[in-house]
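WARN retry 2 of 3 for item q-0093 after timeout on previous attempt; input resubmitted unchanged.
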Amino acid sequence: MLKKKFNAIIILSIILSLLVIIPASFAADDNVASIDDNLMIDDSIDDVLISDSADSDLIAGEGEDIPEEVPKMDIYFNSNALDDNGNGSIDNPYKTFSKDRIRENSILHFASGIYNYTPYSTNVFNVSIYGQDSSNTIINGIDDYHRFDFYETFNIENISFVNIQFVGMGSLLNASNVNFYNSTALELDNSGTSCGGAIYCFGNDNSIILNNCSFYNNYALYGGAIFSNGGNVSISNCNFINNTGKYYGGAIYQLYGNLSLISSAFDKNNANDGGAVFIFSKNGFFIESNNFTNNIANSSAGAVYTFYNQNYTISNNLYENNSAVNYNDLYEKSDLIVLSDNYTFFRLNLTDEIDEIPSYYNLSEYGMVTTVKNQRDGGNCWAFATIASLESAIIKAIYNMNSSGLLNDYDEYADILALLNDPENLTSLIDISEENMKNLAALYSPYGWDWTTNDGGNDRLAIGYLASWLGPVYDVDDRYTGSSVLSPVLSSIMHVQNVFYLNRNNYTDNDMIKKAIMDYGAAYASLGMHTNSNADIGTYVYNSADASCNHAVAIVGWDDDINIPNAPGKGAWIAKNSWGNNSGNNGYFYLSYYDVSSFKPGSYGGAFVFVLNTTIKYDKNYQYDLALTDYFLNETDTVWYKNVFNATQNEYLAAVSTYFQKETDWELSVYVNDVLKSTKSGFSTPGYWTIDLFEHVPLNVGDIFEVVFKINVTGDAGFPISEKVSLNNVFYKEAISFVSYDGENWEDLYELEWKGYSGHTYNSQVACIKAFTVFDVISTVTSLNVVYEGVNPFNVSDHEGFNPVNIIAYVTNQYGNPVNCGKVIFNISGEIISVNVSNGVAKLTRVFDNGVYDIFAEFVAFGYESSSDSSSASIKRISLNMTADISVDLDTALVNIYLSKPINDIVYIILDNEICNVSSIDGRASINLTNRSLGLNNIRILLDDSIYECNEVVDSFTVEPKGTNIGCSDLVTVYNSGYEYKVRLTDEDGNPIRGRELVYSLNNLTDTLVTDENGEASLYINLNIGDYPFEIRYGGEKVYINSSNNALITVNTSILLSGENYLYGSSYTVNLLNKSSEPLANHEVMIIIAGETHTVYTDEDGTAKFNLDLAPGEYDVTIINTDTFEEKNQTINVLAINTTTTLDIVYDRTNPVNITAHVLDQFGNPVDCGEVI
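OK item q-0093 returned
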């Protein structure tokens, strides 16, 4: 980095100026892109220093302190002296004038005569120059360029200067009765800043006082005679004749500071804007009693151009015979409306989806980037990166337009088309000016930010410049110097309408960025170029920790497989730098995917591509914002914002634009004089996007139209704003920009102050909404295409003339792009049909009878010129015969169809006004016609008579009725058996009828059954004991006649009891039956007796036994059949058993007596219990 020295005065002046004008809010901006933190402007004699005079509010000569008088040296000159050996005294003057004869704090006296002056540059400190008379006392700068750099006070009187420029640096110039002739302000390198052909002063302390002076034939790019930046200028009784300012101010350009212009005359001066005077001042000016005659402006304001100035007076001036394209005399510009219709239209029409992203890609290898440039000492990398991205996008569009044939159709592309076969010449042609961008977007431009020129910038400056239509312009029209600060507003060579902000979620999530580069061209990217980073600056860059940004480049490709030293993984972007071909690898370097300063995950800041996809050229840009400076945030996910515009002529509103901070769902409404005229809705990714209204909205001069956005996002919604605090100038006022949080109650943004959102302070702002109009209707071309979709099956190449017919109208605008609005009205032999146009197409499908049909199509839409085309359709038919046979089964008819030719097409069948179809294969078709009605069925079989000339088959068939029978039988079952009782429905031939509903009645209930595939239906019997009549009926359906039947269902007990009396010790028995009334064998039975529950099992005969070991008595018994859950009760008697006792006694005389008692029950069985007493 080169650092050049200033002299002490200049350094002090600029440092003080920078302290005043650099806003603190920019200091921590991550998107600031400049590696030139230590850059100092070269103070060589060719450089131009300009200061902001926002703090200067004094009219020249008012309130100034009178400096202390310093003794002056008088020096005398007389061109008529005999020789040049004098000592400069009044008695012995110098004959010639040279640089070494000027002294500090001197007064130079010149007698009448001509004094040739040769030095290129001369510094004068506190010097006065007095001539004998202005007409005859002339200091003549011979040969090339000459200038006086004056400091402190410089007084000149009664003298003429030829080809000499006076440059003041915070000084006082006091001139009276002085003539300034033929001076040209030096144009640095044929492209730099050239200001004030005769007088150029800068600095807040600068003052110019001119009285009775004249300026003839002077030239500069800015201010042909006088350029003043800051300070105070007072001009009275002066003449300005035939001076030229190429861009602004044929005679005078006043930038900042104050101007008093009184009783002066301006004649035959010329410039592009402000033929005589151009003024941009933040303070005020006074123009009174002047004459403006014969002045010329190539663009606007033949006499005086004032640029959004406030607190000024223009009165009692005479205007005669001044001329300009716009405003012959006075133009007081107070808005930011830009008219620009003479530019080249570049459009990239993407049709192919990227299926696979390669591991390596480099736009430069496809000729899709321009040559590497050099920003030199200027801190303007942000402009170079932006322009490199835009140039790449334009080249992409050119190749795309060439492949689609558009370049051949329009004369404006002739030069480009001629260079397509020579990519090097093409990339040289697409060379856009960084100079114009960096100067117009910064401090010394009425359209710029309050940001020191050549001292860094960011993407918002660049996008604001382009979106406002201030540029771009070709480099040849405003070449880069790196140190100049002024540029003219030239006609844009094209318009940027869409900018796609790039984002990734992590360091390897790069597909979106890669696709954007492949689709649209090189991407702008900010990054850090830090000496403490892991980088070989210019070869590769990898910042592992420092995420701050101080540089910007254009990303032209990538390499997934390259290893960057110290990076945690493979892969890097290929970056095109702006340090010339000698840096890095011929001006390129690798930027690691894992670099923490670039493409920051989760952030949309500092990376974008240009999307050149607009379909028409807009003529006017209604806008209040110079650039996006911030987003107005609040803790809500939905917000409404709107701008109000005043139509300045009869025109058509074609599109609007805004910025989106996040992925956004939006709704757009356009009102004209409070009437809703257009609505749209959609979804947008972050970026600056233009929304085409498709159908244009007519505007008349004086119409008030509103553009209203409602946006909804995830998280906090922020809408884009442009703020007074960040800019040199504002173009908005009260009651033109509003915000609402309910869509009904609106707050004016002009003086809306709020500090409620963390990190943001809002004071005065305007919403970033632009509106684009076209002056005239857009011409269109409608082309009609008739496509026969039918095919002759016997000659597949013969499809002309066969139905169906697609009638397609293609509608393109005057730029060859498809129209996406309006209608095409088709007139087909008198039949009118209207079809909406979508993406340039209106399509209608028709089937015609034989014959010829005239077709006329006309496109109509608001804002578009109607266009039309005509054609015709001639319809042929194929001749053939058709037969058929029919067989009937119940209510189904099988129809077999035979065509005399192997047609593969649809055959239509009409059954008593019911239509069905079947496809024929090689001239054969079959169809089953099911569920036909009883009786006679009429049938017609036919082909499409628009395609075929064929007979119809007319026939009929009869569906006969069928008797039915319901089979059911009597049933005997037991209590709650759940027995499956079946019925069967058959036809009169005994065939089962399935899927039919039967209605039955049982036990006072009515219900339905549906037959299965065997014609059977079942119900389960769960009834109490008793006899139940069963009735069932079928109501009949289609071919089946109704029928009915009945049966008796008898339900018996499932528990058969035995007798009631039981002897003690005998077995209690009970018999059980199953669901089929058969013995329930080997099944569990519960018997409850004497309070105890006993579980017993039946034997093979269904008999269950229980031993009655109970005392004689009466017992209640409960029996439960666990199969049917029937419960039965019985009372039994347990009876005592009768016994008989007999004794046997045996004795003799010699032994004891033996007595034996024999106890028998009543059945003669011995008793084995009890005792005998």
